[in-house]
Amino acid sequence: MKISEVLAISGKPGLFKVLASSTKNLVVESMLDGKRTSVPGSIRVSSLSDITMYTLKDDVPLKDIFIKIHKKNKGDSALSHNSSPQEIKDFVDGIISDLDHDRVYSSDLRKLVQWYNILISQKALPFDPEETEEDDASKEKSLVTKKTPTAKQKHSAHKPVAKKRSVAKNPASKASMNKASKKG
User: Fold this and answer.
1) What pTM was computed for the model?
2) Which of 25, 45, 121, 147 has the greatest CB tally within 10 Å of its CB?
3) d(CA 114, CA 81)
4) What is the Cα–Cα distance from 36 to 34, expressed in whole angstroms?
5) What are the C-alpha distances in Å from 23 to residues 8, 37, 39, 47, 132?
């Protein structure tokens, strides 16, 4: 599973997989209970690939944090999100040493641990690699091949096009044409 296919939806607990999308809504499946639902475009939806956490230096993408937790726990789940705020803080500080605690709240850390455990239970970690623009360009280049015409296409390409003569379909107009030709 790719990280861009996993969503967090405002007001709904847990994480969701994208099943289908349109201009007006998304069809998603809960990673907690497997229920499918339609999410209107007016609700705030965030892809996990777009979420970062504040540190004292640069913001760290959530994907990098999940990878560090996965390595530290050797693929096992982390402590429960219902643990005490201090236990969760100590756990995350062991992963990210320069976390900015003035801007990252304990509820954010609890959500981080919960999301990690959901992803582990769904066997979504480690994430599949995302395709980059370079990968897309090389795929397009390999798909575009020079087409050679078939024998039938070659033969029809050299065939002269016959010109059609205009013929009046109305018998009255034929008669008027005959009269005009007789006068002249």
Assistant:
1) 0.66
2) 45
3) 5
4) 6
5) 18, 16, 11, 16, 24
Q: Which domains does the chain have, with CATH numbers?
A: 1-50 (2.30.30.730), 52-126 (1.10.10.1650)
Distances (CA, A) of 26 to 58, 127, 176: 32, 22, 68
Cα separation, 75 vs 121, whole angstroms: 10
25-30 and 36-40 as β-strands: parallel, antiparallel, unpaired?
Answer: antiparallel
pLDDT, tens only, 79-118: 878 788 899 899 899 988 899 989 999 899 999 999 989 9
Residue (of 100, 121, 122, 106) closest to 52 by Cα position = 100
- Distance between CA atoms of residues 53 and 40, nearest Å: 27
